[in-house]
Give the backbone structure.
Amino acid sequence: MSASFGSALHSLANYRAHNTRASQEVLEKGKLLLNSNAASKLGDDAWAFLEQLALAAIDVAKYDVADECIRQLAAKFPESPRVDVLTGIRMEATQPPQIVLKFYEELLEADSSNAAIYKRQISVLIRTGKIEQAVLKLSEYLDTFYSDVEGWVELAELYSSCNQYTFATQALSHALLLAPQNPFYVLQFAETAYSADDIPLAAKMFMLAIDIVDRHTSDESIPTGVSIRAWYGVKLCCRVLSERSCSSASETPLPRNLNLLDELATERVLTAYSAGGTDNATGRELVSSWMGPSDRSGTRLHFVH
Amino acid sequence: MVNYTVGQLAYLKIFFHAAKHPHLQVNGVLLGKKVSGTVEIVDAVPLLHHWTSLSPMMEIGLDLAGKHAESLELQLVGYYQASERLDDTALAPVGEKVASKVKEGFADAVAFVIDGEKIGSDDVALIPFIAQSPSSSSWWPYAEPGSPAPFTPGSLFSLSSPDIPARAVALVRDQQLQRKFGDFDDHLENVTIDWLRNSAAMPSDIQQ
């Protein structure tokens, strides 16, 4: 019994550390622990565990489990802002949005420094489709809580969902100021710039993403993850730049040596598909033919905004 | 107007894609062919579940899916998406764009939005959208006054077999097949993921 408890605890701690949303698994593992009252043996971790289990339970609609966790947390931490947030999230699952929004308004009047409550409010607005209001509230929030990187990223995603790609890149530029070494944000910026039809800017940022990733790996390494996406992005930009004249709203200059860059991007992506003799890489021939210089037949699809 | 039939392979793939990422927007393309006035939607290729409003990887995925369709002697015939919200059954702006592009290559292109309320039931969980005119990029839910609702008897839209939705629900609930399913986003992180065929996630009786 204790061996499976140990491994369950280990998984749960791992999920917490990585903020993984594996709600079904968390519920299955967590219920065992909750029922055996193992929480009392967890020491300080018990409270983080109860919060995690409550969130997972709400996610998969097992509200009785969530209520039990919240009950224990509220008993231990009366009037805690963090428990207030959890209570709000539980309400969001079953109560009409106006009631929850009113609850959050009241909490904010009592304590306007509870950033998490602002964010719950904004997420309710998003969930109910009130995107314009959400954007307004989120922008206000970021005026005060400027260093909330995730807030800037969320704002960018809201703008993108409404085709406002230029505003999205402006929001992401704040995220990049706050976290300049994060290749995911750079990649997202690149893809957003492409969507805004600023192809030279997109190309520059795809290459920056690759640069950041490469700093942490050896020279001859096989591209993975962020790098593959970024090299595909570079290739796509090279192709578009050679097919039509592109202006850049940000006045980014064209990459030099477009042909060489195109060849390099091709080589890098194809390396990822041929690495280590992987016959497992699927669609290699397809990608190869997509990459090939002969494929300028115009059947390729490109969105002009 | 033409008839549309949705085959088991296509429906299962759309279903698994949505089931694998219930809290995210997902999208992909439909593969098929037109046979004597009926568009047979035979297969689907899943594209994104991440940054679904951004275009570069979508464009690349669309190109690759198109080539894959050719290799199967099929064409890109439509687009599908599922929203992260149960009550959101609108076709997103990016969806209209993709669907319009597909329509340039296939005049009878259709877009399906997954109906979040119906997805757990035996009902067909697809809402068809049609372009308002051959050159329009505005897509509206299919509704012909006096015609049966889509996927009901006599409608222009039908499944190749009526037990498909129930089977889809059972495969997710009992065998969790959606966990083996991968899209283009997954493939970009791990090139061994077979996003074009997804054979590992399909039940053994389905021919690819």
Notes: The first helix of chain B runs from residue 8 to 20. Residues 3-141+175-201 of chain B form a domain with the Cytidine Deaminase; domain 2 fold (CATH 3.40.140.10).
